[in-house]
Amino acid sequence: MTSGAEMAFDKFRAFMDVGRVQGFPVTAAVAILGSLTAGRGPSVYDLAWLVVISLLAHMSGAALNELWDRRLDSAVGALAQKPLVRGILSPEEAKGLVACFVPVSLLTTLAVFGVPAFLALLLASAWMVWYCTAGKRTFIVNDLAQSVGYAAFALFGALAVGAPTALTWPYLGVVAALVLFTQWGNNLKDADNDRRFGIPSIAVRTGVSSARGLDARHPYFMYGAAVKAAFMTFCTLPVFLVSVPMAYILIVLSLGWPVQYFTMREFIGQKTRPQYVRLLLGDLLLSYPAAAAISMMTAGLVGFLLLGMFVFGGYLAGSALQSGAEFRFRWPASGRARRRPEPKARPARISGAPFMITWAPGGKSGFVAVGSHLRELRPPESLPPRKYDGSRCDGVCIVEPMN
């Protein structure tokens, strides 16, 4: 492969990272399930357009979020490899993706599905834009905006193919509660960094520390448990509204409710950021069947299984396209490679002293760029214990300012 082709491929993967393409099948499933609750079921033509529009909407929303968070990400070791932080992709290129995909998704919806679906998608887009910008620094909006936006996106799916039915409204509650809990977990794992950067999430306001973790009596834990109870209540409502197949009841009772209990139990105690990430991924995978079981009403068991294959297969494909997917399946090493001890890290002198940009407190945004040279790289175990923070540290860069 030529160097030009390699650069083009790296750029492509950077766009996939910024657009978080691995999560797009979940966004598409939200719209597809919404269409399955409508009075007229979707055709293959409808499903194809819903997937295309979902891809555009998902990538544009993710790119806008990455743009807004790039300075915060640069201060978090686990996120410092993102394309916008490393400079693989410029802010102008990410802005170009947003400026292209947002109007194309809206105009395509208007042309293919009409005004009601267009208005629902416009509402969903407005909530997501608000969240990705000023909403992150607005109390309550920080926690609720995504759940409202995704519920509007589910309504878009229903309006794209017909009129909402008695199944549509509890499904909107299912989506809102599922996304609200995902935000609950994200704000839990990011609480210490959010506090440092002035993000007024409910986790921050209730004194959560992502380093210390939660106990069952903490108000934030109780809030998460209430969200889980609301999720399962909305999943159970169709049993009382319409005639449901026995498979639906079995999934909700035997898989839905127990999963929520065990998920909340796992969130008790001290966890590292990667552990929180794995817990959130596991909860999404295990809660999906209860959320998607509503598809059985119109698509049957076969439709339910096909949609599951689309979501999980698309997730794996998206993970392969991304270079730095946060949620990625990692296969354990085997044989001698698994048993080989890792070499001890040693302090390293850096020759050449590459130029760096260091973010220091100051300026209207809370940061100011400071030119510096990298003088030395030290491993985390060479540092004294830190009393202020128990978060993970990958290494410490010793820098000296430039004159």
Describe this structure in words.
- It is a single chain.
- With 403 residues, this protein is of the alpha+beta class.
- It folds into two domains: 3-321, Tetracycline Repressor, domain 2; 344-401, no CATH class.
- It contains 16 helices and four strands.
- The chain has helices spanning 3-18, 24-36, 44-74, 83-86, 91-113, 115-132, 141-161, 168-189, 191-196, 202-205, 219-236, 238-241, 246-266, 273-292, 296-321, 336-339, and strands at 348-349, 355-361, 367-378, 396-401.
- Strands 1, 2, 3 and 4 form a four-stranded antiparallel β-sheet that branches.
- Helix 8 (168-189) runs antiparallel to helix 11 and helix 13 (246-266) runs antiparallel to helix 14 (273-292).
- The chain starts with a helix and ends with a strand.
Keyphrases for this structure?
403 residues, alpha+beta, Tetracycline Repressor, domain 2, 2 domains, 16 helices, 4 strands
- What is the CATH level 1 assignment of the largest domain? Mainly Alpha
Which geometry do the CA atoms define? globular
Q: Name the CATH superfamily assignment of the largest domain.
A: UbiA prenyltransferase
Q: Into which percent range does the helicity of residues fall?
A: 55-70%
How many structural domains are formed by the residues? Answer: 2
Q: What proportion of the residues form beta strands (DSSP E)?
A: 5-15%
- For the record, give the distance between the C-alpha atoms at the N and C termini, rounded to a whole number: 42 Å
Gyration radius, rounded: 23 Å
Q: Can you name the CATH architecture of the largest domain? A: Orthogonal Bundle
Q: From the 3D structure, determine the CATH topology of the largest domain.
A: Tetracycline Repressor, domain 2
Taking pLDDT < 50 over at least 5 consecutive residues as the criterion, the unreliable ranges are: 330-355, 386-394
What is the helix/strand order?
A: HHHHHHHHHHHHHHHHEEEE
Largest sheet: 4 strands, antiparallel
**Number of helical elements:** 16
State the total count of DSSP E strands. Answer: 4
Q: Provide the residue-averaged pLDDT.
A: 82
